[in-house]
């Protein structure tokens, strides 16, 4: 977008952008330059070299463009970073004790933030282009932009020890988006780190996904495992998942800076009441069409029904609820091997040894190797438990 018009003075443009951002429901807006994150490329390279991106190959494939905004768009002169507060109205950690209910990450209880933010950013960018004569491009996190380092450079917050952006005004609850522009805008001062000696986010992680402060290993992260990971949940992390069925808020929710955050009223975001603490039994009943309908407009829809039911079955296995055994049993005949394997594990946790071994005896017609391995492992573990 753009036009051949004489640019408006930088400060006047800043005032205009700030006013438009507030109208659109953004909590913060700041500006940085495209060269403001010189350390980001090396840190990204180290992360990829260590394999901590797990199966997210798109990170490696876009690493060069991701490392520097100018490689994504050589003409960019200023980067406008906007933050939208999605702070929940109560502590998400309270739900972890309700074992027959599913814990969905706070951000995913709203309409897909990619759609929400991108639409509002486009409106602001179009107005900026019309007023300034500058070219603009809009990015949300589906594009190869390192938004958290840019947000830190722009002064919106700092990357905490959990690697997410932390704001003194909004805690850890911020969606980020950016507008690249050829306009020369006054840049803001970067924010400094205010984590101090606090380790709350590191110590609460159920799967020890932080090998060191400011470092995340996605291979151990529940958010990665429940959203990006396509195969069976690794056995070592299943119990630790508890009732988390999409994402994990633990490291965000425990951040002390959240005490300054407020619920996301100014963003005009309304969380779906039916996603605040859904019953696992009801979710297990969803077929593919029902899943797509129920999660229409939700980011959860993107992972597909099979992965989602895999997550719900894992939570059911951790529930210690006799009432969930029968809904899990029905999934032993599911068309998806991923779902069948998760059902085997869930039942091995919920049934007594005799009942489970009776089920295992009838599983000889299973043809998928991964599911057969689940049966064998679970049967062996059940037998060992009976001997103790």
Describe this structure in words.
The protein is an alpha+beta fold. Among the domains are: 10-88 and 110-181, NADH Oxidase, CATH 3.40.109; 279-388, no CATH class. 41% of the residues lie in helices and 9% in strands. The protein contains 18 helices and eight strands. It has helices spanning 10-23, 40-49, 57-61, 63-67, 69-72, 113-132, 147-154, 200-204, 222-227, 235-241, 250-253, 280-284, 288-294, 304-317, 325-329, 337-350, 353-361, 369-387; strands at 28-32, 78-85, 103-104, 136-139, 158-159, 165-166, 174-181, 244-246. The strands form three sheets. A four-stranded antiparallel sheet has the order 1-2-7-4, sandwiched between helices. Strands 3-8 form a two-stranded parallel ribbon. Strands 5-6 form a two-stranded antiparallel ribbon. Helix 1 (10-23) packs antiparallel against helix 6 (113-132) and helix 16 (337-350) runs parallel beside helix 18 (369-387). The chain is elongated.
Radius of gyration: 23 Å
Major sheet characteristics: 4 strands, antiparallel
Fill in the CATH topology of one domain: NADH Oxidase
Helical/strand content category: alpha+beta
**How are the strands of the largest sheet arranged?**
1-2-7-4
Distance between the termini: 71 Å
**Helix share of residues?**
40-55%
Which term fits the overall shape?
Answer: elongated
The helix count comes to: 18
- Quaternary structure: single chain
- The second-level CATH architecture of one domain is 3-Layer(aba) Sandwich
The CATH top-level class label of one domain = Alpha Beta
How many DSSP E strands?
Answer: 8
Q: Can you tell me the residue ranges where pLDDT is under 50 for at least 5 consecutive residues?
A: 1-7
Strand content: 5-15%
Order of helices and strands: HEHHHHEEHEHEEEHHHEHHHHHHHH
> What does the average pLDDT come to?
92
């Amino acid at each position: 977008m753009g036009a051949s018009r004489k640019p408006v003075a930088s400060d006047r443009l800043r005032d205009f952008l700030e006013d438009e951002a507030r109208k659109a429901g953004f909590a913060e807006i700041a500006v940085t330059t495209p060269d403001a994150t010189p350390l980001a490329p090396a840190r990204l390279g180290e992360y990829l070299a260590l394999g901590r991106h797990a199966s997210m190959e798109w990170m490696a494939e876009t690493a060069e463009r991701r490392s520097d905004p100018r490689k994504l768009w050589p003409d960019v002169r200023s980067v406008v970073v906007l933050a939208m507060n999605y702070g929940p109205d109560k502590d998400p950690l309270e739900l972890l004790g309700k074992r027959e209910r599913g814990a969905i990450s706070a951000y995913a209880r709203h309409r897909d933030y990619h759609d929400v933010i991108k639409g509002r950013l486009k409106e602001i960018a179009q107005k900026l282009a019309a007023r300034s004569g500058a070219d603009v491009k809009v990015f949300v996190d589906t594009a190869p932009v390192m938004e958290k380092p840019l947000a830190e450079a722009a002064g919106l917050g700092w990357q905490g020890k959990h690697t997410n952006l932390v704001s003194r005004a909004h805690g850890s609850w911020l969606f980020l988006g950016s507008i690249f522009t050829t306009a020369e805008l006054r840049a803001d001062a970067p924010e400094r780190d205010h984590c101090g000696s606090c380790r709350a986010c590191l110590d609460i992680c159920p799967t020890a996904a932080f090998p060191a402060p400011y470092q995340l290993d996605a291979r151990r992260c529940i958010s990665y495992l429940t959203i990006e990971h396509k195969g069976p949940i690794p056995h070592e992390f299943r119990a630790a998942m508890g009732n988390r069925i999409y994402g994990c808020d633990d490291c965000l929710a425990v951040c002390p800076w959240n005490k300054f955050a407020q619920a996301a009223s100014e963003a005009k975001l309304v969380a779906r009441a039916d996603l605040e603490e859904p019953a696992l039994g009801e979710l297990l009943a969803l077929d593919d069409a029902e899943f797509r309908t129920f999660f229409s407009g939700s980011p959860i829809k993107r992972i597909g029904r099979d992965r989602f039911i895999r997550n719900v079955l894992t939570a059911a296995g951790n529930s210690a609820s006799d009432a969930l055994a029968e809904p899990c049993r029905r999934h032993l005949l599911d068309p998806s091997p991923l779902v069948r394997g998760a059902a085997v594990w869930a039942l091995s946790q919920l049934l007594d040894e005799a009942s489970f071994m009776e089920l295992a005896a009838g599983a000889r017609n299973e043809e998928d190797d991964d599911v057969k391995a689940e049966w064998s492992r679970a049967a062996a573990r059940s037998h060992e438990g009976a001997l103790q």
